[in-house]
Structure of Polyphosphate kinase:
Amino acid sequence: MPKELTPRKEINLNNPNFYNNRELSWLAFNERVLEEAIDERNPLLERLKFLAIFSSNLDEFFMVRVAGLKDQVKAGFNRPENKAGLTPKQQLKEISAVNHRLVKLQDSVFTETLLPMLYHEGFQFLNVSELDATQLDYLNKRFQHYIYPVLTPMAIDAYRPFPMLLNKSLNLAVLLKNEESKTNQLAIVQVPSVLNRVINLPSSTKKETFIMLEDVISYFIGELFLGYEVVSVSPFRITRNADMTIHEEGARDLLREIEKELKKRKWGAAVRLEIQEGTMHPTILNLLLDVLEVHKGDVYSLKGPLDLSFLFKFYKQLAHENEHLANETLIPQPPADLIGEENIFVAIRKRDIFLHHPYESFQPVVDFIAQAADDPNVLAIKQTLYRVSGDSPIIQALERAAENGKQVTVLVELKARFDEENNIQWAKKLEKAGVHVIYGITSLKTHSKITLVVRHEQNEIQRFVHLGTGNYNDSTAKLYTDMGLLTANQKMGIDATNFFNYLSGYREKPEWHHLSTAPFEIRDSFLRLIDQEIACQKKYGNGRIIAKMNSLTDKPIILKLYEASITGVKIDLIVRGICCLRPGIKNVSENIRVRSIVDRFLEHSRIFYFHHNGENKVYLSSADWMTRNMEKRIEILFPILSPPIKKRIKEILNLTLLDNTKAREQTKKGTYHYVKKKEGEAFIQSQLTFYEEALKHAETFDE
């Protein structure tokens, strides 16, 4: 009989000590992003980019998660959350402590580590006090002709109240002294986001020299307030609540309802105030705290520039001519399953096609839709769109298909957070081209990634389906790791047809041949699969689960994983971001390992493997193991039926588990540390290995 761990009867699996709080776990993920800016193995410009990612991530966290907790406190909601048992107030207190530590670390990494490294490489940021006469003259001309005309000083007095400042805008608080009355007055000047934040300066040295736009405006600010003495100039930045409340039930037109809410997003309640250390007069700080209704704990003081997301543009500016300071560009290769194939429909009819992005190109997915748009034998194209690129070739192909007289149906998810405005524009554009656009089902986000092409072949209808773990976005497909399947499997095609009819019409959820969908059904499928693995462990002693996802928060699934661990099932979880499960707890989760990989590509694929006594069940999905994916979204879980593809995905999972370069392991206390390389073991960086394999396939064919 296989050995089974016997749980102590007194163990309560609802014990809060067995769980990580969702928000604190996310902050632990963002700390791993910050570690990449600290990691000396990364090239200098890549380290700067990770600082920008950290800043951008934190903005969204405050706008949505912190804002939501503050709303709960304001509403008097004080019930503990159902895993780690923290009330909203307790969560905000712990979030504040962690964030102040991380922001201080981020600030010191930039000012004390990376700026000196940039200087060593021939790049320097200067303050106005460090400029020579030539540089000052250059800035004076630039200010007068290029910056000054864009600026708008906003005085604050009895007739002109404190202005409603845009979310995430960078502003200057200017304390002025009236030369006649000798009284102090306040004005606000917004740093224009339409101008480049980093200004190149002429230099008499070999170093490329830069200055920040806000420093230039601060130096010449007196030009805006003639007749006043400038006492102080203080950069500050506000982050506001940007979560939207959409009353779908009563909405006659969802698109118009969202357009109205988008206008409100810019003016939500302030949730964070960032200031520059040593520049802000106490009077101004107290006024900002009062007007914005933020607490002192919501104030973040930095030595360096506010909002390091400007480093995204700076990275691009420098990387082009300084390749030695950035990662080598990895050009996506032709997918191994499509090498030598000329017609994508012919290739799919032969066998299922597996795509591994970004190591393998996303172009075949674009080609799949583009060829369908122009193929006279294609009758219909149906697709879900969650996030697409700014100049999407997929949108262009769908428009062309409609113009060519094909039946084109597209579900555009209008509620994709921070992409709502973009998606509204695409929806309108597609409708004008004759595409039948639908917005999904009330109160649910459609997060599924599926395309159906219906083609007339040899007097019969043939259905071709693409299913994926990531969005139909050709831009992010170069940056995110994802997987896709192209298939002509008849039952999968019937499922796809029923899925789109379910979304566009009035009908009950159909019975599926192969697919499983959310809400609720996917969770039931996973619970059943884990139960089957528990049964295999009890009978054969070989229970094994490997699951890869972005985040894990769903308590019913976590409880079932704990149950499997107690039974002896060996479980490896590869979770990039939030993980509310704690591994390694004696008699609870000691058979579970949790690892996270943060590397040059954002880990985004959702893969689920169950050994099932050698049957090797493999599934891909658009869904993470999060409660929102299980209950509040329309998602798809689909099986991999092809044995060669199953084998390949299992090898991908195994290699990911061998990563000892960019992988971190979670401890039983919920903290993370880099995986330690064993003595004599070679360095394995899974992302680079996957690219090398894709390159090898392409080169083998060329030979």
Q: What stands out?
A: The chain has a mean pLDDT of 93. Residues 17-320 form a domain with the polyphosphate kinase like fold (CATH 3.30.1840.10).
